[in-house]
Amino acid sequence: MFTVTYQVEVRGNICFFSFYLPVEMELGFNIHGFLEAECVVVCFRWVFIHEKAYQITDTAIESSVMTKVKGFGIYNNKVMDVADYVTPTQGASVFCIITKLITTENQVQGYCPEFSCTQDSDCKKHTTKSGSVLTGRCVPINATNKILSVFLLSLFPHRTPMMEVENFTIFIKNSIRFPIFNYTKYIRNFLPTITDAYIKKCNFDKVNNTYCPIFRVGDVVRYAQQNFTKLADKVGVIGIKIGWMCDLDKSDDECNPSYSFNRLDAMSQKNAISPGYNFRFAKYYKMENGTDYRTLVKAYAIRFDVLVNGNLIVRKNSPCGIFCIYLLWLKKAGTQKAMFPYNVT
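^ that's the sequence the OP posted. Answer follows.
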């Protein structure tokens, strides 16, 4: 407590009386009140502005993604539909659209009459013929003779990409849940205003159709800052990111998705070792005589990964915030007191 004392003398005459009036005033300023006010300001700025401690944020988003690709293309003089160029076929969050194929047709396990053997280790002494692969097995053909078992191969390379992929469409359905507050949005990348008529004609764009759940492949590639012609030939991995930034203190209609796109394997463009993305699969058939054969396919594809992230924000009563309010309540104003001793003569 700082105290300042003032002494003032007042003298005068009124009618037949003269008077002397000493006045002493003591003004006190409570330093604790100033410090409390400063503490409140610092606490308020740190808690509410800097740390946002009045909010609880749930980042443990649970998500389900379903996808569907549509479109027709022509490859190697054949019409290709979804069953031919999309894998896996279950509509998962990670899927591939095949742009080109190297096909090995009519691959049959048979016998090579040029090579004879007595045991499996003899197979290492021979090299494969063109269009065949040694199995490493020495199999009998009669009671006394054995020969090498081979796969007979027939290669049909076709390296020109299927350019119709650029106009294929990807339909994405996304459901989310924030477990801390049990907040759920089922298939809510569909806005309430979306109708069947709108879905049939809309394609996503960043200006006019920001919430359309149908994406043209060429647009996705362009938003990821890639050239479609080069990507279809060299192939790669594209990310489709769905972001949910929701605030429960606002209207539920304001909890809507935002979409962004990027190339996830950008480093493979700078690496000459195993660039792009490819995989193999086989289709099996049976001849009329019961012999099994297969078509082996090496597929080059653009892979799409649908990635979901988000935050849910809820206001809360911060203990430190309550403490700040308590300090305000306890804050004492400066005190003033005055003493007026006087004499009248």
